[in-house]
Task: inverse folding
């Protein structure tokens, strides 16, 4: 026996992360089968398999587009750092010349995190804007790029912090500065106000009129 | 020409589309393949395969009606093209040639 409505979170993920232009028909098919008595576990299994199959297919069949998405995301990050973070950093430095105590209480690293969060959000929106139909594969490549650049430093700090507690604040800051842009990217990429479901409903409404 | 050869799952999907005729959309295609193979088929894989077949010109698609049990979402119907039928025939000929004369496949049930 199943509930009358499939899991909303699964639909939400499918609308944003399933590959290709036929997400609405795909979700409609899953709804139809669910109404015929498929279980919630089956629905979730289909959701996960559909997203993973889309990632594998996009990376295999459209590698250039996936790399393009990665470059667009990294390009947005570089521009953001050059135009916003650079001047902000310069300003912080000037301020801290007058208020040296701020360094000791690690105000600067904490102030830095919102910038990384916003930067991540911009990257996520950029990838969504240009590669919305292959979002999951693009996000996976971005995650791999982030892990590739951040993990060596994280690993070295972890090794240092193992024996020397003085390194622990740096280690936590490094973890936070990896997590903040990651959260920003996820929020930016998945917070589409008009995913395909809404577009579909709007299209149908206008054709009915 | 390698691009025009059919993979195993592509062939299954094309045969299901041919069997179903005018009623070929995601759900009956999945049911047909599941009934024949005994395996659960991810809906996403069917659509990915159909997209690929459409790119190759082996099937065409059209948007159909939406129903309440589908949450108001339209069906996408698929139809095989002449090129698709030729590709299936070619795949069948190739497989039959390869099957015939294989000692392990003749007579026994193993």
Result:
């Amino acid at each position: 026996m199943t509930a009358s409505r499939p899991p909303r979170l699964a639909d939400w993920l499918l609308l944003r992360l399933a590959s290709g232009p036929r997400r609405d028909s795909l979700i409609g098919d899953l709804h139809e089968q669910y109404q015929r008595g498929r279980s919630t576990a089956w629905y979730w299994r289909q959701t996960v398999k559909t997203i993973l199959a889309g990632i594998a297919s996009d990376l295999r069949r459209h590698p250039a587009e996936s790399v393009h998405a990665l470059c667009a995301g990294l390009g947005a990050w570089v521009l953001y750092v050059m135009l916003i973070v650079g001047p902000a950093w310069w300003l912080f430095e000037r301020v801290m010349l007058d208020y040296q105590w701020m360094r000791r209480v690690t105000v600067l690293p904490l102030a830095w995190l919102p910038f990384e969060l916003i930067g991540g959000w911009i990257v996520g929106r950029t990838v969504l804007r240009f590669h919305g139909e292959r979002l999951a594969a693009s996000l996976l490549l971005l995650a791999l790029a982030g892990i590739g650049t951040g993990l060596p430093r994280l690993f070295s700090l972890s090794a240092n912090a193992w024996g020397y507690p003085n390194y622990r604040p740096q280690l936590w800051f490094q973890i936070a500065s990896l997590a903040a842009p990651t959260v920003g990217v996820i929020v930016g990429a998945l917070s589409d106000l008009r995913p395909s479901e809404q577009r579909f409903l709007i299209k149908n409404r206008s054709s009915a009129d | 020409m390698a691009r025009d050869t059919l993979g195993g799952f592509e062939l299954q999907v094309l045969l299901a589309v041919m069997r179903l005729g005018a009623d070929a959309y995601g759900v009956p295609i999945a049911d047909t393949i599941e009934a024949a193979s005994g395996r659960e088929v991810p809906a996403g894989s069917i659509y990915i395969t159909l997209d690929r077949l459409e790119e190759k010109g082996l099937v065409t698609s059209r948007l159909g009606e939406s129903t309440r049990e589908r949450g108001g979402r339209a069906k996408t119907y698929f139809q095989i093209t002449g090129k698709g039928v030729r590709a299936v025939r070619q795949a069948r000929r190739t497989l039959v040639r390869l099957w015939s004369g294989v000692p392990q496949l003749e007579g026994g049930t193993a």
About this structure: The interface with chain B takes residues 18-20, 22, 24-33, 35, 45-46, 49-51, 53-54, 57, 61, 197, 200-201, 204 of chain A (CB under 8 Å). Chain A is about 85% helix and 0% strand.
